[in-house]
Amino acid sequence: MRKLAAGNWKMNGLASQLDEVAALAAAHPDPACDVLICPPATLVDRLARKIVLLDSTILIGGQDCHPKPSGAHTGDISAAMLRDAGATHVIVGHSERRADHAETDAQVRAKAEAAVSQGLVAIVCIGETEAERDAGRTLDVVRGQLAGSVPAGAAPETIVVAYEPVWAIGTGRTPTPAEIAEVHADLRARLVQRFGPGASGIRLLYGGSVKPSNAAEIFALPHVDGALVGGASLKADDFGAIVAALSAA
Ligand code: PGA
Questions:
Q1: Hey, which end of the chain has fewer CB within 10 Å, N or C?
Q2: Which of 4, 90, 209 gets mutated to test ligand 1 (max ligand atoms within 8 A of its CB)?
Q3: H/E element holding 91?
C-alpha cells in the first residue's frame, strides 16, 4: 500500500504560509508516499491553485465537514464545498473538534459518510485521553471510537484511520513504540474482523508529536502506514524530513 504523510495545519496559516508548500514541493518533487496538506478552509482553494502552478502531486484536505451537503448551518462547510474547492480528503473527528465542539462518534460517522458520498477520503481520528490510558482503558476506548466513528463499507479507497492519543497531541510526548504497535495491531484486527480481508489495505496513521527525530522509529512499526502531523507540518524542512522518513520506510 502507498503510505500517507498528512499535515494538519489546524487554525494556522495566512496566505504567506503557502510559501512552505512551494519549498516542500521543490525539496521533495517525487516522494514515495502520498503527501497531503490540510490547511484551514480559507486556504483550500488557494492551495489547490498553487499546487497546479507548482505541478506538484501534493494532495489537499479539509479539517472538518458538515454531515449535510448544504443548508442553514451558518459557519459550517460541506464535503461538497471542500471537493469543489480542490480537496480530495477531509479529517473528521479530530480530538480538538471532539473536545471543542462536543462531537460524538455518531456525528463523526455521519461526517465520514458525507465525505465519502462526495468522493472524498475521510480521515477518521480516534484516541484516548491521558486519564483513560492511566486507567488501562486505551484499547477499550479506541475500539469503541473505531466501531462508532467508521462508517459501514469502509475500504482503502474511502477511509483512513488516524490513531492520535489526545495526550500526545502538541505536547512533545509520544507513547512508546510498543504502545503504538499494540494499538495499531488491535485496530487492524478490528477493521479486518468488521470489513473483511480487504481492510488490511486501510491506512492506519499515527498522530501526536510526530517530528523528524522520532518519525523513522514510528514508521518502522507494523501497521503504521503513515502519520497525521500537526505542528511539524507547518515548516517545510520538518515536514519534508518526515516525508523522507516515510518514503524510506
Ligand atoms: P501534533 O498534532 O503533531 O502537533 O502533535 C497532531 C494532530 O493533532 O493531528
A1: N
A2: 209
A3: strand 89-92
Spacing, Cα 123 to ligand 1 middle (Å)? 14
**Residue 3 burial (10 A CB sphere; 0-12, 13-18, 19+):** buried
| CATH number of the CATH domain containing 115 | 3.20.20.70
Q: What pLDDT does 8 receive?
A: 98
**Across 142-155, average pLDDT:** 98
Residue 13 structural domain: 4-248
Pocket of ligand 1 (CB under 6 A): 8, 164, 169-170, 207-210, 228-232
| The model scores a pTM over 0.90 | yes
Which tens digits make up the pLDDT trace of 216-225?
A: 999 999 999 9
Catalytic residues: 94, 164
Please count the structural domains in the chain: 1
Closest CA to 47 of 94, 88, 106: 88
Identify the sign of the CA torsion 35, 40, 44, 47: negative
Report which protein residue has its CA nearest ligand 1's atom 7: 230
